[in-house]
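thoughts on both lines:
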Amino acid sequence: MKKINSFFLILSILIFGLNSTVYANVKGKKIWKGKITYSISYEGENITPATVANAPKTITTSIYGNKQSTEMIQGPMIITMIQDPEFNRYYQLFEMGEKKIALKQDLSEFNADSLKKFDSHIDLVNETKIIAGISCKKAVVTLTPRDPSEGEESIFDVFYAPGIGDDNINDGSEFAGIPGMLLQFQSNNSGMIIKFVATEVKPGGVKDTDFLLPSDYKVVAPADLEKEFSNLF
């Protein structure tokens, strides 16, 4: 059960902290709807081969304007993270067999927590790359830890798709200022590096109602999550 409270909650924070949006859809403006599948790789001195072997290798992010839902599968468990800036909602859903548990939080509070670890600097570069059939632009990201225990300063490239999302799609994250959805990026946490590369971009097939909290999930406090699943491990 420790793996749920540590690695996967850390991974959820990394994913949504790096891709969170905090703006509302602009009325009358055409919004992008679709799904993006990413491959995931892991490296770093603080991640063990056993953790890598058991960690998700792909995730799928569904987008409806500024709403996002990301799903990963870990063994018998399905983990889904939903954010809805319009109503300031953020959910983490855990499904294992007939057990369905949800954590609920204000998105603004979650974003504030995710931005405490690093100061970021973004340089937009005149360079392009094709990722999953999409023409992407390059940005160079510099992350400086506010706490030395989080490691050293890191500099890395990311690629984004200006046609997916708008200029504010990365507001509220360490990638604020990058005007498009990230199709190649990485996140750093305590000596662990997680890299994401889009392998498929599929427009359509997403509804506004996909971002509601399902009625068959039981909402619990974070402190009670381990207790809810302890008898299944």
User: Anything to note?
Assistant: The CA atoms of residues 122 and 141 lie 5 Å apart. The radius of gyration is 17 Å. Confidence is low (pLDDT under 50) at residues 1-6, 16-24. The longest helix spans residues 2-19.
